[in-house]
Amino acid sequence: MTSGYVLAIVGGSGLYDLDGLTDVERIDVDTPFGPPSDSIIRGRLGDTRLLFLPRHGRGHRIAPHQIDYRANICAIKKLGATHVVSISAVGSLREDIAPGDVVVVDQFVDLTRRRISTFFENGIVGHVAFADPVCRHVASAVTAAAKLSGKVVHEGGTYVCIDGPQFSTRAESHLYRSWGMTVIGMTAMPEAKLAREAELPYALLALATDYDCWRVSDDEVTVEAVVAVLRDNVNAARRMVTELAHTLPDPTRSVAHGALASAMMTDANSIPEGVRAKLDWLIPR
How does pLDDT run across 24-47, given as a tens digit for each residue? Predict the structure, then answer.
């Protein structure tokens, strides 16, 4: 039963073109961190509300390292999100994961260096548990929905996140493979960390578009090749979202539920008033 649930999809700008989506509206959200990447499309599919946020903005205007991840997560939380599913293009670091396949990842390695990865700073300290960064219940629902969409689905795997916007060197690609990484991308971090701080059950559907640059000595990643595979995956992703909207798990069973209960280190009376006001959407007074 998904009545009352609000599923936020963070991904491409065309995913909201779903059969049966009603009450569609475009919403601009103010956050203490500035505007999110773009207006958010809100609609209803059966008993479930859906929110669609194009991570890079419509027209793909925002580079991975310039996305305001805090504003994005804050905006969907303020609109009542109960679940977050990220849909993201990645490079495959394994022979058995071919372009066009999808991976429902369950772990991350964060190699980004230039991104703010927490809401807790400037007078407030919080340390959320992040050993299991993906909600296994949402991930299971995503896996089932992806299989019904007709795609080859790989359950589990580690996403290594780099700053970009350049693709990897060949030496880096081979290094990540030697570490046992599964896929490589530029956007999962700090998105997943911030979702946990916001107590939002999070899962990521990785769309493999290429083999990075490790597989063949003269094989390099090109934007044209990535876009071609992504276009083929759009319809499958829409089918997955439609199915998922009807099969969302109870968010109170998620590892993210109540994540802040044991994470806050700062005494409430010591939090600066300006910081408290900035986080009133997250930590009620």
Answer: 999 999 999 999 999 999 999 989
Across all residues in the chain, what is the average pLDDT?
Answer: 92
Per-residue model confidence (pLDDT) at position 71: 98
Q: Respond yes or no: is residue 210 known to be catalytic.
A: yes
The dihedral region occupied by 140, where left means phi > 0, alpha psi between -120 and 50, and beta the remainder, is alpha
Residue 284 domain-assigned (yes or no): no
Determine how many CB atoms are found less than 10 A away from the CB of residue 21.
20
Quote the pTM value.
0.94
With CA atoms as reference, report the closest residue to 181 among 101, 109, 102, 90: 109
- In the set 212, 218, 219, 267, the catalytic residue is 212
Domain ranges, residue 240:
6-278
Using 50, 70 and 90 to split pLDDT, how confident is the model at 219?
Answer: low
Instruction: Assess if residue 201 is contained within a domain.
Output: yes
Q: Which residue in the list 47, 132, 210, 280 is annotated as catalytic?
A: 210
223-245 and 136-148 helices cross at what angle (nearest 10)?
Answer: 110
User: Per the structure, how many domains does the chain have?
Assistant: 1
Which pLDDT score is estimated for 232? 74
Residue 148 is part of a domain; what is its CATH number? 3.40.50.1580
250 classed as catalytic: no
Asked whether residue 48 is assigned to any structural domain, the reply reads yes
Task: Tell me, yes or no, whether 223 lies in a domain.
Answer: yes
